[in-house]
Design goal:
The complex is a heterodimer of chains A (about 500) and B (about 550).
Chain A (H helix, E strand, L loop, with lengths): L14 H7 L9 H10 L3 H5 L10 H41 L9 H12 L3 H12 L6 H17 L3 H11 L5 H14 L6 H12 L8 H13 L3 H9 L8 E4 L5 E4 L2 H23 L5 H14 L3 H13 L6 H17 L3 H14 L4 H11 L7 H13 L6 H13 L3 H10 L14 H13 L3 H11 L7 H14 L6 E3 L1
Antiparallel strand pairs in A: 1-2
Helix pairs in contact in A: 2-4, 4-5, 4-13, 4-14, 4-22, 4-24, 5-6, 5-7, 6-7, 7-8, 7-9, 9-10, 9-11, 10-11, 11-12, 11-13, 12-13, 13-14, 14-15, 14-16, 15-16, 16-17, 16-18, 18-19, 18-20, 20-21, 20-22, 21-22, 22-23, 23-24
Chain B lengths: L1 H17 L18 E7 L13 H10 L4 E3 L5 E3 L2 E7 L4 E6 L18 H12 L14 E8 L2 E6 L6 H4 L32 E6 L5 E5 L12 E7 L2 H9 L5 E2 L7 H5 L4 E5 L3 E8 L4 H4 L1 H10 L2 H9 L3 E3 L22 H10 L3 E2 L5 E3 L2 E2 L1 E7 L5 H16 L3 E7 L1 H10 L5 E8 L6 H4 L17 H12 L3 H18 L2 E7 L2 E5 L2 E2 L16 E2 L6
Parallel strand pairs in B: 1-10, 1-11, 18-19, 18-20
Antiparallel strand pairs in B: 2-3, 4-5, 5-7, 6-7, 8-9, 9-10, 11-22, 12-22, 13-20, 13-21, 14-21, 15-16, 16-17, 23-24
Classes of the chains: A mainly alpha (about 500), B alpha+beta (about 550).
Chain lengths: ~500, ~550
């Protein structure tokens, strides 16, 4: 499942402003207040723990609680989506290096994980050949071959070879191995074959994975998070995530006394992105219906739909604000226009969207928050954004330090998407709080991920690794990136072996 | 004697062939402009200036401006030609043949003509570097080379004992001239060459002033083209805050390593650029295991449990760093992410000391067999910044709470190095290591590296660690090497020959007038020949 369709921008730069405008809760130190504190410090995972306290939140705070949770989930969705994209890039590089090793101690599992990453990267054709190799490998364990067959079935299905897919799925349907079952469930869900009841297959996989309370191997849990999310069973998916050790590996392959390779599930990040995205829509929808929250919540709801690639719903959420005669403050009005512009463009009404975007920027060209947002929308537009970029670069040149983080992040992202890594780094570094280089409390985690991407692409691996090291406390799911990056770095580094006293 | 004269005559003949009497600067066509002066601030001063005997970062950086290797490593981690213009690898990775440039010359000494760089210099460098009496930490790195032979004046072949990972990168070691050292057999810190070196690099040593400033001048004959900036001056500072103020008042143009506490001040000033460069480094308290009191692992672990690293990092460095758990930096590919730093637990520390047989004496200091747990901590005075002073005093205070008496001695840098690396006269040191990307800890913890001027200053010895280090050097499999390094991390963390502290944020700062600045994360000045200052920006 891919989150965030191409059409809409990530309207995240205004989040903090709205949080600041949110009236403080009555009880200091209440779960809601704690969540606000966590959210302001970009600790989305900690903030999301409010979800489990919702039943005890007073009715008068319910709207705010849903709003804060919705924003936390929206931010999480965006972050995990970015991490997922980067993980595909890095994992392909790493697994390619691992699978190129030949000899008695060569890895078998590398091919299986390579196939999964290729599937995540929307390349079922190449994935199929890796799956095939595992499925035909007589040295592989039965469960590994069956997992590969289930994946190969999905690759075939996506390539339009449904008959072959069915044959492959049938060949493993009798398995009682929870990993195979969850793989089948994942394949059915991704293929949209709801008549095969993928949720039920996941229930079966989880229950056979172990004793009650032991939700089983990482592959099973990652697969089932995705399956339940696609099925709209968000509570079940959130329950799985609740106690999940997100830094856990999915497989460990011992290839001798001193050679052990760990493999991580790429589906985890995608599953988390989708789960948090859908949950944010659910929560923000509830906030939208609560008293005193509807204006801001409507804006966020529009953003959340945009994040999930649901342009029509995004547009409807914004329009419903206007139709309901919501009294939005001036900055919120501008935000609404931006969301609308992005949604119109994604809906295929490019000219209308672009005109609204350009007009809004012209009217607010000294507002770095808005111009930054416009640059993000421009990322999805091939041409015609020269004026907006010029305005953005002009504003960025007049501002330095963390106060300019938003506009520099937008410009950094813009150039990164065009593979102009040096320019991207210049802007991203300009937006970084250098006194707190890798701390999420002082830097938008998305800026750090963009920096990590740019440093990875420019082969400054240690910079990227330090970023993930800093993020891993709050977002332990970055472990898969750390592992793959370390693997790439160990091969690509070319140094003499020097060490000196500082 | 006659043979030597003939060799010298041949060298001069070659020199005459290679060098035009009408010296013209080799210009670059990279868009930069020549001229200007760049003053850079270093926290401390170099011990020696040659690439063989030095083992500190300040020396390494100067060496990078003065010397070249056979190969270099560019910004994209690609191996590129330097003194060798091409190479061939044969015999299954056991033979490396280098074809040398014919246009490289050695910096001229006063009153002399520059001599050409030849194969003799390469052979000479390898032999002097590996001579048993040469003072250098480099030998362990080149034990895989069986020998080197000169095939002709501009061709050399290295034979390897076995193929190794990243062998070509190892040939980035700096070449020194055969006519450089006074003693052509082996090199020590008494040889005048180590203080007045000549190389083939973009800059030539002009002088060392009375204030210990290192003045370097552009090498007009540099084979890659004359470097743009006329002169580099390395200015030593004993205080990082003063160094920052010097840049604020334009007395220097660049700070190599910014004090983390000064980052906000510099970041807020539009005249400067703050540039991260991730040298893989960390700070530690290192123990001398020759002292029977420190030979017991439980005592060393107790020290680690006794100190509150988070509190120190937050209080003294504004939290600008990362607490580490073992012998690799967290930005390294070798860091074992499953090994977590020991948590502050003074009760556990006391328990460990008691398990090791210590009991509180009358004055509260722990004793065992009538001997007090009283130790000397030596710190180089150049590193006596306010923050470092606080760290060592805090360390003393934390240890006092568990009944350990620590006396802190600040020593002058060279004297500290002699105490630590030569005479091993210390109980505990506070220091930092910096690694290149290879994250090679073999010289720090292999038992063969115990001895004068070697990096295993604390005499740590563990056969399992030795065996893993050897295996990591023998393997050609990157994943196997990663696994071994993860095990090493785990083992060394458990054994605690050091109390591993933290990695601090690394930023360089420079005036915006210095253009096209790219910084090598370890060697720093690798690309400094391309930096330039526009005429209108010069004073």
């Amino acid at each position: 499942m891919r989150v965030n369709g191409a059409g809409l921008a990530r309207l995240f730069l205004i989040l903090m402003w709205i949080i600041a405008a949110t009236p403080p809760g009555r009880a200091s130190g209440s779960p809601v207040e704690r969540a606000v504190t966590h959210l302001k410090a970009n600790r989305y995972q900690d903030a999301a723990s409010l979800y489990w306290d919702l039943p005890s939140v007073e009715a008068s705070e319910s709207g705010k609680a849903h709003m804060i949770l919705g924003i936390s989930c929206l931010n999480s969705a965006r972050l995990y989506g970015e991490l997922h994209d980067l993980s595909i890039d890095v994992s392909l590089n790493y697994l390619g290096k691992v699978s190129s090793h030949r000899g008695r101690d060569r890895s078998r599992l590398a091919n299986l994980y390579m196939a999964e990453v290729l599937m995540a990267g929307q390349d079922p054709d190449r994935a199929a050949s890796y799956y095939q190799e595992v499925a035909n490998d007589p040295g592989a364990a039965t469960s590994e071959r069956d997992v590969a067959r289930a994946g190969l079935g999905l690759a075939n299905f996506l390539l339009g070879r449904e008959g072959r897919a069915e044959k492959l799925w049938s060949s493993v349907a009798g398995s009682s191995d929870p990993e195979v079952l969850s793989e089948l469930a994942s394949a059915f869900a991704e293929a949209g074959l709801w008549n095969r009841e993928p949720s039920g297959v996941c229930d079966q996989a989880l229950s056979s994975a172990g004793r009650s309370g032991d939700p089983g191997p990482m592959r099973v849990r990652s697969n089932c998070i995705g399956v339940y999310t696609r099925a709209g069973q968000l509570d079940k998916a959130l329950e799985l995530v609740r106690d999940l050790d997100m830094k856990a590996f999915a497989d460990e392959e011992k290839l001798g006394e001193n050679k052990t390779i760990r493999f991580y599930s790429i589906r985890l990040l995608d599953g988390l992105a989708a789960l948090y995205g859908k949950t944010s829509i659910d929560l923000l929808g509830k906030a939208f219906n609560a008293r005193n929250m509807s204006g801001a919540a409507g804006l966020y709801l529009g953003m959340a739909y945009a994040q999930m690639g649901m342009a029509a719903e995004s547009l409807a959420a914004i329009d419903s604000l206007n139709n309901a005669g919501e009294q939005l403050a001036a900055p919120q009005m501008v935000t609404a226009k931006m969301i609308r512009a992005g949604a119109l463009h994604a809906e295929g009404r490019e000219k209308e969207g672009f005109d609204l975007l350009t007009r809004t920027v012209r009217e607010n060209s000294s507002d770095p928050r808005l111009v930054a947002e416009a640059v993000l929308i421009c990322d999805t537009i091939d041409s015609g954004c020269g004026e907006i970029l010029a305005a953005a670069e002009n504003l960025a040149g007049r501002r330095e330090g963390w106060g300019s983080a938003g506009i520099n992040l937008s410009l950094g992202r813009h150039y990164a998407r065009r593979s102009d890594w040096q320019k991207a780094l210049t802007f991203l570094e300009a937006g970084r709080d250098k006194s707190n280089k890798n701390r999420i409390e002082y830097n938008d985690p998305l800026l750090l991920v963009e920096l990590a991407r740019a440093y990875y692409r420019t082969k400054k691996y240690s910079e990227a690794l330090e970023i993930f090291f800093g993020m891993s406390g709050q977002f332990p799911a970055v472990r898969q990136l750390q592992n793959a990056l370390q693997g790439v770095y160990s091969v690509e580094q070319k140094s003499a072996g020097d060490v000196k006293v500082l | 004697m006659k043979g030597k004269q003939i060799t010298l005559l041949a060298i001069f003949a070659l020199a005459a062939l290679c060098i035009s009497s009408n010296v013209q600067a080799l210009t670059r066509n990279d868009g930069g402009v020549d001229g200007g002066l760049l003053n850079y601030g270093e926290y401390g001063r170099p011990a020696t200036l040659d690439p063989i005997t030095s083992n500190d970062m300040i020396s390494l950086r100067v060496s990078e401006l003065l010397f070249n290797g056979l190969v270099g490593i560019d910004e994209k981690q690609e191996i590129v030609p330097e003194l060798a213009e091409r190479w061939e690898i044969s015999d299954g990775g056991r033979a490396y043949t280098f074809y040398l440039r014919r246009d490289a010359t050695w910096h001229a000494r006063a009153g002399e003509e520059p001599l050409p760089f030849t194969a003799d210099d390469v052979v000479f460098t390898f032999r002097i570097m590996t001579h048993p009496k040469t003072i250098t930490p480099l030998k362990v790195r080149y034990e895989f080379i069986d020998g080197v032979e000169k095939l002709d004046d501009f061709t050399v072949r290295f034979r390897l004992k076995r193929p190794i990972l990243n062998a070509l990168a190892k040939f980035s070691f700096k070449i020194i001239p055969a006519h450089g050292p006074a003693n052509p057999e082996f090199l020590t810190r008494r040889d005048p060459f180590v203080h007045q070196p000549i190389g083939t690099g973009p800059y030539m040593l002009k002088s060392i002033t009375g204030d210990r400033e290192v003045v370097l001048e552009a090498n007009e004959r540099y084979f890659k083209g004359r470097p743009h900036v006329d002169r580099f001056v390395g200015k030593p500072f004993a205080d990082q805050n003063i160094m920052t103020q010097a840049m604020m008042f334009n007395a220097i143009d660049m700070i190599i390593l910014v004090n983390p506490r000064n980052i906000p001040e510099i970041q807020g000033d539009r005249r400067f650029v703050l540039q991260p460069y991730n040298a893989l480094s960390y700070s530690f308290f290192g123990y001398n295991l020759r002292n029977p009191l420190l030979a017991d692992r439980r005592v060393r672990q107790a020290f680690t449990f006794a100190i509150n690293r988070r509190e120190m990092l937050d209080s003294f460095f504004n939290g600008q760093g990362t607490i580490i758990s073992g012998p690799f930096a967290p930005g390294s590919w070798a860091y074992n992410l499953d090994v977590l730093p020991l948590q502050y637990d003074p009760d556990r520390a006391r328990d460990l000391l008691e398990e090791a047989g210590f009991r509180p004496g009358q004055d509260g200091v722990m004793e065992k067999d009538g001997e007090q747990l009283s130790l000397t901590l030596k710190v180089p005075i150049e590193k006596e910044s306010e923050a470092v002073k606080r760290v060592v005093l805090a360390f003393r205070s934390y240890l006092r709470k568990i009944g350990v008496d620590v006396r802190v001695e600040f020593k002058e840098w060279l004297s500290w190095k002699e105490d630590v690396f030569l005479s091993h006269d210390f109980d505990i040191i506070f220091a930092s290591w910096v690694f290149d990307d290879s994250a090679d800890i073999s010289s720090l913890f292999h038992s063969a590296e115990i001895g004068p001027w070697k990096n295993n200053f604390g005499a740590y010895s563990n056969p399992e660690v030795d065996s893993l280090i050897v295996e990591s050097k023998l393997t050609l499999d990157h994943e196997k090497r990663r696994t071994i390094y993860r095990k090493l991390h785990d083992l060394v963390a458990e054994e605690s020959p050091y109390t591993f502290l933290w990695t601090l944020t690394n930023y360089a700062a420079y005036q915006k007038k210095v253009r096209h600045v790219a910084i090598h994360p370890y060697k720093y000045f690798s690309f400094a020949d391309e930096w330039y200052i526009l005429e209108e920006d010069r004073p």
